[in-house]
């Protein structure tokens, strides 16, 4: 059997992928053994997870419809339903669009490489790996903490809800309801005993897995963005050595008298000796007058282009090939990053749009709920918990989207701040076109409607605060 | 080196387009508009019949406009009755203005047809042609949906007097007539329905024509992007590569020319359309709030609401499509192996990239860009007017 080998992004994101597969997402690739039986087993596991999620979601929804009489209950239940809507949406979205996700993961399988820039590439790759792992740990901790907090808060306080007194229409009495994580309707009586215990365990499973579904996908998206950003950093770093590579031997300062003297057949240029080329590899960009003007100051007469294989840029053939290959590496790597970012946008854009839609409605309702907080009690804790969680989710992808925008728009600065004026004509036109292209920052958009950046987060936060202020005034 | 033959001269030389003729994409709408007497004719045959058809259409529209205006003046104090008339009245007024502008800029339509037969738009591979056909197909599907919706709306206007016993002998739209309506009920009914049908189908055709044209421009941009991505700067000699690049530049210029002509033709009409849509959407929304859900009237209002939304949304969508496609031309060129190119070619690339930084936009009336942002603005304004109307109604 063929040994299962992973490379590129898939190898880097293996922990993420394994967790996603473990939580029941429909990610059926990336297994060493994909034979019929195991495949069916995995597919079965995913389908069972889907069925459970939908069942519980259905129970939540039925409960919403049943309890729609009371405004407070309606608001609370709507928030819960919306919260789990976007978990279900992410689950179903992944199942439906998994091809795009596989494509994005597979894009970085065969990156190009250049002997000069291997060290830089590896360094930034290791950096990206470290950051992606760190993000994953944070997400795992956060999800577990939220699930545990939710479970523990269920056991605090009274498990009641208020309904109209059947005898007197104007009074409200409190009626006990099952002590569960999420208010839902079940066809069996879950008040106490064995059914209650089983239902409780089922709900804990549901809450934990729903949170995991949403957060793991978001962290996959953010890991992609981290990777893209580190690649852009790598490209920015190698711009300077690239320009210096093409800058060697190029500072030609003519003496004006010599320009008008006819070149004699015996005039000898101070052509640079061959072994000077090998010394040039360790030019580290330290500005030194001797290097710039003294060391390779060319002689008086105009260059003799034919002899010695020195081209019009003042570089030898070998040098020129090296520069050209470096430029080719740079441009191809940059194009690859652009392809990766486009694929990320295609794969996840619509999911972000749906997320923002549900979040907007949910946060509006949460602002309304927040106006009814009377003290530090269970109610306040749950409302604040929901609010913080929703905002944290939005912040999670906004911050990485923003970093991508910043990194991609600073490529132009990097191109300009290297010694482009020392470079060959070819290198200069290369910088020209790169600057053109990188003026427009690369960004992820939510299906073209809005851009993922910290501006989005600020507007969401501002909107919530505004609604809260207005509603408090209206009370 | 032979001089480059201008596209116009090419057209006169050969009127036969070898492959997919772009002008065939809007053939149906052209036929309908010719029948209505509004599409400009190149020849002068059947001139009188043509004028006669146009005259009948204009007569229907203006007569209805007059009758509705008088009725509205009579009923100006009743908000609900007023909104019922206003929803059709606004459409009618917009339609009349659109017709006027269509007539003023008739020649531009013929110019657009000429531009579409330019040779630079033809001669591409099947793969690229597929990109164009997909875009045009989506434009045509949108057009067909819209047409079906408007036919449904006209049907809903015509049916209530026959199906609903309460409303028998009532007119489809409120209108004032100088005689007793019940005496000459059927002729009046026929007059109104014919007027509505006429407005609907001509309005439809104008809109669908513009959508298909915009989607053609968008498809051509996709073809250009594909061409630019595939230019191989390594193979062949300098001259061939330069020629390919120059062809791309000319293609871009021609597309920009096409879009500017489309804008000149339809821009003012679209602006009025947006203006009217805000009013109609808010009034129809308001009506949907006060009408009982299970009634013919509600179905009519709902279909009408969907029609108006469709109209506005389609303009914004296609305008946005052209804008986004044209802003990624530079990216497509970057995706080729330009770093292998000669320095001379790089200078051409650079100037071309500068030009493609500015996206090709369509505007309504010269200052409102057609894009999804405009759509959200329109919807938001409609909603605020609707909220005001609701408050006014609740206060009564």
UniProtKB/TrEMBL annotation, chain A:
InterPro entries: 7tm6_olfct_rcpt (IPR004117). GO terms for molecular function: odorant binding; olfactory receptor activity. Its main location: membrane. Pfam families: 7tm_6. It comes from the Eukaryota. GO terms for cellular component: plasma membrane. The chain crosses the membrane at residues 43-66, 78-96, 135-156, 204-229, 337-367, 379-400, 449-470. Keywords: Behavior, Cell membrane, Glycoprotein, Membrane, Olfaction, Receptor, Sensory transduction, Transducer, Transmembrane, Transmembrane helix. It is a multi-pass membrane protein. It is found in: Cell membrane. One of its GO terms (biological process) is signal transduction. Belongs to the insect chemoreceptor superfamily. Heteromeric odorant receptor channel (TC 1.A.69) family. Orco subfamily. This is Odorant receptor. It comes from Zophobas morio.
């Amino acid at each position: 059997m063929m040994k299962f080998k992973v490379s590129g992004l898939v190898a880097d994101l293996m922990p993420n992928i394994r967790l996603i597969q473990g939580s029941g997402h429909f990610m059926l690739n990336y297994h060493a053994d994909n034979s019929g039986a195991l495949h069916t087993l995995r597919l079965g596991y995913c389908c069972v997870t889907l069925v459970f999620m939908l069942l519980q979601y259905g129970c939540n929804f039925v409960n919403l419809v049943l309890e729609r009489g009371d405004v407070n209950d309606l608001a609370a239940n709507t928030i819960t339903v919306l919260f789990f809507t976007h978990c279900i949406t992410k689950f179903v979205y992944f199942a439906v669009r998994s091809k795009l996700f596989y494509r994005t993961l597979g894009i970085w399988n065969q990156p190009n490489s250049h002997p000069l820039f291997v060290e830089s590439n590896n360094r930034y790759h290791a950096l990206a790996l470290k950051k992606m792992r760190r993000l994953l740990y944070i997400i795992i901790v956060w999800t577990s903490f939220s699930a545990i907090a939710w479970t523990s808060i269920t056991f605090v306080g009274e498990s009641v809800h208020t309904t109209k007194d059947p005898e007197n229409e104007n009074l409200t009495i409190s009626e006990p309801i099952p002590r569960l994580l999420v208010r839902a309707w079940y066809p069996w009586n879950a008040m106490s005993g064995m059914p209650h215990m089983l239902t409780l365990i089922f709900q804990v499973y549901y809450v934990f897995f729903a949170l995991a579904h949403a957060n793991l996908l978001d962290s996959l998206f953010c890991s992609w963005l981290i990777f893209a950003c580190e690649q852009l950093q790598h490209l920015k770093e190698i711009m300077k050595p690239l320009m210096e590579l093409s800058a060697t031997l190029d500072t030609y300062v003519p003496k004006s008298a010599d320009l008008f003297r006819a070149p004699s057949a015996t005039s000898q240029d101070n052509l640079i000796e061959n072994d000077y080329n090998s010394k040039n590899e360790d030019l580290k960009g330290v500005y030194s007058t001797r290097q710039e003007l003294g060391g390779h100051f060319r002689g008086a007469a105009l260059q003799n282009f034919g002899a010695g294989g020195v081209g019009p840029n003042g570089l030898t053939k070998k040098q020129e090939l090296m520069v050209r290959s470096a430029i080719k590496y740079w441009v191809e790597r940059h194009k690859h990053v652009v392809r990766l970012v486009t694929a990320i946008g295609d794969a996840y854009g619509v999911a972000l749009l749906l997320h923002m839609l549900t979040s907007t409605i949910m946060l509006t309702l949460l602002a309304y709920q927040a106006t009814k907080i009377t003290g530090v009690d269970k109610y306040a804790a749950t409302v604040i918990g929901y609010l913080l969680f929703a905002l944290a989710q939005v912040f999670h992808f906004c911050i990485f989207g923003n970093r991508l925008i910043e990194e991609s728009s600073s490529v132009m600065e990097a191109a300009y701040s290297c010694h482009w004026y020392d470079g060959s004509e070819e290198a200069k036109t290369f910088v020209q076109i790169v600057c053109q292209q990188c003026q427009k920052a690369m960004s992820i958009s939510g299906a073209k409607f809005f851009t993922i950046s910290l501006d989005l987060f600020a507007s969401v936060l501002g909107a919530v605060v505004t609604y809260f202020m207005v509603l408090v005034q209206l009370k | 080196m032979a001089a480059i033959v201008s596209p116009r001269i090419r057209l006169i030389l050969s009127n036969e387009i070898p492959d997919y003729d772009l002008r065939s994409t809007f053939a149906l709408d052209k036929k309908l508009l010719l029948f209505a007497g509004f599409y400009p004719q190149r020849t002068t045959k059947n001139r009188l019949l043509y004028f006669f058809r146009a005259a009948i259409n204009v007569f229907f529209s203006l007569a209805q406009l007059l009758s509705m205006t008088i009725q509205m003046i009579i009923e100006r104090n009743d908000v609900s009755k007023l909104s019922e008339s206003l929803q059709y009245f606004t459409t009618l007024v917009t339609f009349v203005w659109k017709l006027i502008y269509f007539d003023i800029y008739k020649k531009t339509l013929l110019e657009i047809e000429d531009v579409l037969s330019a040779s630079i738009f033809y001669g591409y591979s099947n793969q690229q042609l597929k990109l164009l056909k997909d875009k045009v197909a989506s434009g045509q599907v949108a057009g067909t949906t819209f047409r079906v919706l408007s036919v449904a709306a006209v049907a809903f206007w015509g049916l209530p007097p026959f199906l609903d016993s309460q409303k028998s002998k009532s007119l489809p739209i409120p209108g004032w007539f100088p005689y007793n309506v019940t005496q000459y009920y059927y002729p009046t009914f026929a007059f109104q329905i014919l007027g509505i049908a006429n407005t609907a189908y001509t309005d439809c055709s104008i809109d669908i024509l513009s959508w298909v044209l915009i989607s053609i421009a968008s498809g051509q941009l996709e073809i250009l992007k594909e061409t630019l991505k595939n230019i191989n700067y390594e193979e062949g000699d300098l001259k061939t590569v330069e020629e390919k690049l120059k062809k791309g530049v000319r293609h871009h210029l021609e597309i920009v020319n096409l879009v500017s002509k489309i804008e000149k033709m339809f821009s003012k009409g679209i602006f009025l359309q947006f203006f009217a849509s805000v009013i109609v959407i808010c009034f129809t929304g308001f009506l949907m709030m006060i009408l009982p859900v299970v009634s013919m009237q509600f179905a009519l209002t709902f279909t009408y609401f969907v029609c108006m939304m469709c109209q506005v949304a389609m303009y914004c969508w296609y305008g946005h499509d052209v804008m986004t496609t044209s802003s990624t031309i530079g990216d497509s060129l970057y995706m080729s192996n330009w770093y292998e190119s000669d320095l001379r070619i790089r200078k051409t690339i650079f100037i071309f990239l500068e030009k493609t930084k500015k996206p090709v936009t369509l505007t309504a009336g010269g200052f409102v860009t057609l894009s999804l942002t405009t759509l959200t603005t329109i919807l938001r304004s409609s909603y605020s007017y609707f909220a005001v109307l609701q408050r006014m109604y609740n206060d009564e």
